[in-house]
Description:
Low-confidence stretches: none
Oligomer: single chain
CATH topology: Rossmann fold
Radius of gyration: 23 Å
Number of domains: 1
Strand order of the largest sheet: 1-12-7-4-2-3
CATH superfamily: NagB/RpiA/CoA transferase-like
Structural class: alpha/beta
Mean pLDDT: 91
Strand content: 15-25%
CATH architecture: 3-Layer(aba) Sandwich
Number of strands: 12
Largest sheet: 6 strands, parallel
Amino acid sequence: MSTRDAILARIREAVADAPPAESPHRAYLSTHTPDDDPQALVDLLHRNLAEYRALVHRTDGAGIADLLMRLLAERGSRTVLVPPALPPEWLAAADPTRIHDRAGSTPAELDAVDSVVTGCALAIAETGTLVLDGAPDQGRRRITLIPDHHICVVRVPSQLVASVPQALPRLDPGRPLTWISGPSATSDIELDRVEGVHGPRTLEVVLLQEP
């Protein structure tokens, strides 16, 4: 008998009288946050987004056009990149020139755009994370990675979940998923934070309250 066989035999002997496990899987919680209060989830998302240095705004359907107009004006944006299925009423009051998402746009052309406004696929309250999946109201992944200013509109509560385990079943793994937690940032070995390295330097999130 080899040493390996001897060790395994001793292990089998030691556990022979052990009671059978009730389940081979551990009962992990899918969330640490009660999800029966939608407004509490919105508040948690707001706090976590702000902790990641995103600028968070709240409005409803009647106020979103004026809010987006104000945010773009405060930024001094002359051009705004628009995904193909962004609701047109969202930018009805805005002055900047619309730049449409085209397959032939070069990185230099996208870098010259002042702002981009998109929807999202989901938002996760516990982690302050936005998930984009390239749907028509979000456009291609690159349009949210190259421009320096991204305004993302989240419809709440329908696009809000408490946790990552709750988000995964609602997402299509075959789509180009982009997970965003705050503005793009990195740090060097001395922990000096630098923003805008591989994505927008400024992330603004609009929580659009649904009826």
